[in-house]
DNA sequence: AGCTCTGGCTTGTTTGTACAAGTTCGCCTA
DNA sequence: TAGGCGAACTTGTACAAACAAGCCAGAGCT
């Protein structure tokens, strides 16, 4: 672990623990540099990390202030339902309801950088939180990863983790579209809600470290079961509104 | 504009223009430093900016790659409906339906850092996109900003901009919770949808540069009208799932 | 042909220095 | 008391240098 990550971790712990309350000032960079025997640049990297997490804010000339005190794991949580659930103290489970190969559609070809007609693997999963069904996942995997996905246990808890352990696949980048939709008849049946009731939809495309698209997915959460949270500042964070599409 | 922002801007333009296609490699830091006659550190700040926007990805040892080519304005868009609409080429309008002072509730006191019983301003707005009602906004302003809000034109297009021009107020930080809910009878009537139909809800708390809370709001979008979008990488971005609350 | 290994390239981390720009707060004055 | 001024403090920007760590392609070997 890099020095600046250690310092960031130390400061984050102090904030989460309540040593610095919300609205309070953080020590100056110079003071932190002295305390940790590090160069000012290193301290700046540490606090930049906290700023990106939304825990602290900063303005030129004034001391940094504490904006929040909740820790967030950010990336992994957004990609792996199981990892998120575990970190929140829930018990996650899941079932593959169907899994079949088929040629990709034109729109899938674009999103997964495939040639029209290339084969993809279409998987439908139902995921539960403490036994309650909360999420219907319709995922389309690119053909080159399909064999590894088909080898997975149908009741596999964390797909992300299994794929990492079996073929070393790492999900590195993702784009996510979030909106609300009415439950279709299949959604309704699987989630145990009425048809037409509100669902929170997350559509995503995930790629490897090399920028190679792995999967695109349409995930639908039962209303009330899950909330997305984001902290942002004038400086950063690419969460944007888009016109309906 | 800082040197690193100029460099970032230049590279971003090149990416958006298509000089570097998705999946392509960016020039090395050394080469960019030479091209722009800047230190390597300055170039690193520039590409870090692009990485935070989700435009490029990077791994130690390998050249940086282009992940996306769409420009996003991020923060302002998430806070100002009008500014977002304008940048997307829509015509935004809005109407204040009710506005009244009242003592704050206990939960509002916590979120806005007020004393229990302090006065707040409760405003209900309906916002339209090209004439179509798409958003019901229920905003609670802290007492100290209430006078400035009450002076606003009831049909004011951009509250954010007006408050900046009239009292120099800048929204600097925000926390946002995004989920799906069913339309209540008032929501349904205002948005012209059936009761119980799905809405995308964004609850937010906004603070000034000094970390002083200004407003908290419950915004509900008609399904299909608006989508939130986020790019993330293993390195960054604080969009997280939360258990329903 | 297929494999390993190595050397060069590229990004990541850290330190040090200098100056610019904005904030804060106390002091002084009107 | 109210306001203005300025000095000290704090964060932002930029440059330079050095080493660590990971990636990749080409050379050489089996």
Shape of chain A: elongated
If you consult CATH, what is the topology of the largest domain in chain A? Chorismate lyase
Radius of gyration of chain A: 21 Å
Report the uncertain regions of chain A: none
The major pleated sheet of chain A works out as:
6 strands, antiparallel
Structural class by sheet pairing and helices of chain A: alpha+beta
Kindly estimate the percentage of residues of chain A that lie in beta strands according to DSSP. 25-35%
Q: Tell me the helix content of chain A.
A: 25-40%
Please identify the oligomeric state. Answer: homodimer
Distance separating the two termini of chain A = 42 Å
Number of helices of chain A: 9
Protein name (chains A, B): GntR family transcriptional regulator
Organism (chains A, B): Microbispora siamensis
InterPro entries (chains A, B): Bact_HTH_transcr_reg, Chorismate_lyase_/UTRA_dom_sf, Tscrpt_reg_HTH_GntR, UTRA, WH-like_DNA-bd_sf, WH_DNA-bd_sf
Keywords (chains A, B): DNA-binding, Transcription, Transcription regulation
């Amino acid at each position: 672990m890099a020095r600046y990550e250690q310092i960031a971790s130390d400061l984050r712990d102090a904030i989460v623990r309540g040593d610095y309350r919300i609205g309070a000032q953080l020590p100056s960079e110079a003071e932190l540099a002295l305390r940790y025997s590090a160069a000012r640049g290193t301290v700046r990297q540490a606090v930049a990390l906290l700023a990106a997490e939304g825990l602290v804010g900063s303005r030129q000339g004034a001391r940094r202030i504490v904006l929040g005190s909740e820790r967030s794991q950010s990336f992994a949580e957004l990609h792996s339902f199981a990892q998120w659930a575990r970190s929140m103290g829930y018990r996650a489970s899941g079932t593959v309801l169907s899994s079949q190969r088929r040629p990709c559609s034109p729109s899938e070809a674009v999103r997964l950088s495939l040639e029209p007609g290339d084969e993809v693997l279409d998987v439908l999963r139902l995921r539960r939180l403490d036994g309650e069904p909360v999420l219907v996942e319709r995922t389309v995997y690119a053909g080159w990863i399909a064999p590894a996905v088909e080898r997975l246990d149908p009741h596999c808890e964390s797909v992300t983790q299994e794929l990492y352990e079996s073929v070393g696949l790492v999900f590195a980048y993702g784009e996510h579209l979030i909106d609300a939709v009415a439950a279709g008849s299949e959604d309704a049946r699987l989630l145990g809600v009425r048809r037409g009731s509100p669902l929170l939809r997350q559509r995503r495309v995930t790629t490897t470290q090399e920028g190679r698209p792995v999967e695109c997915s349409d995930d639908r959460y039962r209303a009330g079961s899950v909330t997305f949270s984001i902290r942002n500042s004038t400086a950063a964070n690419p969460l944007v509104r888009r016109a309906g599409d």
